[in-house]
Design goal:
heterodimer; A: 2 domains; seven-stranded parallel beta sheet; 11 helices; globular; B: Rossmann fold; binds guanosine-5'-triphosphate; binds magnesium ion
Chain lengths: 319, 135
Amino acid sequence: MGEYVPSQDLLPRIDRGETVAIGRLITRAEGDVPEARDALANVYKRSGKAHVIGITGVPGSGKSTLVAAMTAKLVASGKRVGVIAVDPSSPYSGGSILGDRIRMTELANNPNVYIRSMATHGEMGGVARSTLATADILDVAGFDVIIIETVGVGQDEVEIVKASHTTVVVSAPGLGDDIQAIKAGVLEIADMHLVSKCDRPDANKTLTDLKQMLTLNAAKIAQSAWRTPVIGVSSLTGMGLDEFIAALEGHRKISVSSEGDKRRLEIAAFRLEKTAKRMLLEEFDKATGSARAELAHRLSRKEGDPYSFALDLVRSVTQ
Amino acid sequence: MSQPIRVLLAKVGLDGHDRGVKIVARTLRDAGMDVIYTGLHRTPDEVVNAAVQEDVDILGVSLLSGVQLTVFPKIFKLLEEKGSKDLIIVAGGVMPDEDAEAIKKMGVAEVLLQDTPPAQLVANLKRLVSERGPR
Ligand SMILES: Nc1nc2c(ncn2[C@@H]2O[C@H](COP(=O)(O)OP(=O)(O)OP(=O)(O)O)[C@@H](O)[C@H]2O)c(=O)[nH]1
Ligand SMILES: [Mg+2]
């Protein structure tokens, strides 16, 4: 049926904002298609204009609904917005059901909004392997704000900090043991905290509890020029959304300062490490296949020990 | 390492329940596919925009309300305007044989009605993607 369009040929079309071309290069980034690496390298070098915002929080806390509401506001103020919605893959089948889009249907026909769903495909940390490459592509395609919604299951979502300029942690009233749901690690990664569903009466308690916990944490916060705000919002009534968007703008100003340089360096270091480790693993799988089978046999016959055999394998790749 | 097949499931038309689509979604997930579900009452515009942004291998459109002969021409026209060339379109739900024939002539790759056994559904989708080749 369709013929394979070279990735380099997609680039000018991506610069013009052509949806089909954007979507295809993202697919190739996701599949780690070797043919696409040069094009993705080109995209990486030219990216860096967009404000990348990470949104995390426990399942059902209202992230997708919030992304839809904030995107509508941002678009109304003239911004183009890209959304990357990450959901976990099933550990059993490797497949996934990606349902965040259901909450964003009113944005489906907006030409200034691009929504992409992706599964984690076994990647830990709540950020899929290709999330950052996808953000680069949306960046060069002219999206001003890129919102990454990630699964927040506990201590696992910390990677979003190393993928976004601004990290937002969403907590909802009535989910589990109130503030217990907000694990200590997650508390610290936030550049801002939102309490969602503030149209509900029980939201006040969540707000108070959260503020209290943050005060206890004040020592760390005091070192920074940025004061982590706690904002109550409701995606249903629109309450707090303007304040939230103003806070995002405020944090973006900091993220272009020297504090921002530090963050950018962390993001780059993280990405380099992840990419290199992945390549190393691939190299290992490719290069050691037959030697591995052979050594496994010898190991089962106790002709050696696992430590020296493993070291042999590793050396055969790294030398 | 091969990528999971990406499928977008959409329910177009006025009928009010999505039990069937949700079962299909789970079947495909359990077969290792990434399934994007977009909810009830979608319009052809919404479906095409979503399918193109998500760059799915397969767009599955489910209808119960007898609108297939108007919905699919709209979908194909919109896809052409967008420049989408290799999206595989599959129809599901309930429809008479002559409608199934008619929409296949329009370019629907396969009509898999409500009573299709799960294993056959999965096998059909995998075959369609492998026939299309790399993209
Ligand atoms: N009352 C109220 N309910 C809300 C609000 N925002 C979201 N909800 C409800 O909360 C539920 C979960 O919303 P989602 O936006 O899907 O939450 P999520 O965090 O994206 O969920 P996952 O992606 O599954 O982790 C839905 O039933 C929403 O209707 C709000 O502002 N007020
Ligand atoms: Mg969600």
